[in-house]
Write a structure and sequence with these properties.
The chain is an alpha/beta fold. It has one domain: 3-Layer(aba) Sandwich (Rossmann fold), CATH 3.40.50.720. The chain is built from eight helices and eight strands. The chain has helices spanning about 15-25, 35-50, 60-65, 75-85, 125-130, 145-150, 165-175, 195-210; strands at about 5-10, 30-35, 55-60, 70-75, 95-100, 135-140, 155-160, 180-185. The strands form two sheets. It has a six-stranded parallel sheet with strand order 3-2-1-4-5-6, sandwiched between helices. A two-stranded parallel sheet has the order 7-8. Helix 5 (about 125-130) links the parallel strand 5 and strand 6 (about 135-140). The protein is globular and about 40 Å long.
Length: about 230
């Protein structure tokens, strides 16, 4: 795809994992963080790992959101609302936001196998409420673990993409397809993110019980493309 991909919270495990996978696929990535220096340090580490052709830079969250065509939200859920309020006036019209966040109780000191109640219904629906008009939203990548993303091997996971906007859904699906082994599936409307987000808590519990870090979700009986 054309244009820059910004990753807010890109210094964390999930954000840096997505940055690594997409930069390896040839995308131009901007790592976003509260601390621009930390963002650039993470970008430098990823450039060194991938090689000289990697197009990865670092910036603070405001600069990242203002310059990118696609912005991926990977900050912990507890910090999402505050960050989105801070960014409300900086988005470019036509920006696509992809929300990967999950309201796990662990974000406020609880168990990672439990969900927080969200007044809007889901983390993605809260994000939608806080985005200005002209910015579209898809929810995706909630069930793809950071440890899998950080490796070089193909993943074994379907990516459910939920959105009320066809363009946002298409872009999120294209990005899923750039991760070897991943398959994008049309998850329907944005409100279905309530279901998808809760699956993450289930996967955390499965990983704990089976002492693994790689549990994923696959749907059977579908066409190869999943579309």
């Amino acid at each position: 795809m054309s244009g820059k991909i910004g990753i807010l919270g890109g210094t964390g495990p999930e954000g840096s994992g997505l940055a690594y996978r997409w930069a390896r696929a040839g995308e131009e990535i901007v790592i976003g963080s509260r601390d621009a220096q930390r963002a650039e340090e993470t970008a430098a580490q990823l450039r060194a790992r991938i090689g000289g052709s990697a197009k990865i830079s670092g910036a603070d969250n405001v600069a990242t959101a203002s310059q990118c065509d696609v912005v991926v939200l990977t900050v912990p859920f507890a910090g999402c609302a505050g960050l989105l309020k801070q960014l409300k006036s900086v988005w470019k019209p036509g920006t696509v936001v992809i929300d990967t966040t999950v309201p796990l109780a662990a974000t406020v000191g609880g168990a990672a196998t439990r969900m927080l109640g969200v007044w809007q219904g889901s983390a993605a629906e809260q994000t939608k409420e806080l985005l200005p008009a002209g910015v579209s939203l898809a929810a995706a990548f909630q069930n793809l673990g950071a440890e899998l993303l950080s490796k070089d091997e193909a993943v074994d996971c379907d990516i459910l993409v939920c959105s009320d906007d066809d363009r946002a859904k298409q872009i999120a699906s294209e990005l899923a397809g750039k991760i070897p082994g991943a398959r994008a599936l049309n998850g329907g409307k944005l409100e279905n993110a309530r279901i998808v987000e809760s699956l993450t808590a289930l996967l955390v519990g499965i990983n704990i019980r089976y002492k693994v870090h790689s549990a994923g979700i696959r749907f059977t009986g579908l066409p190869i493309t999943g579309q």
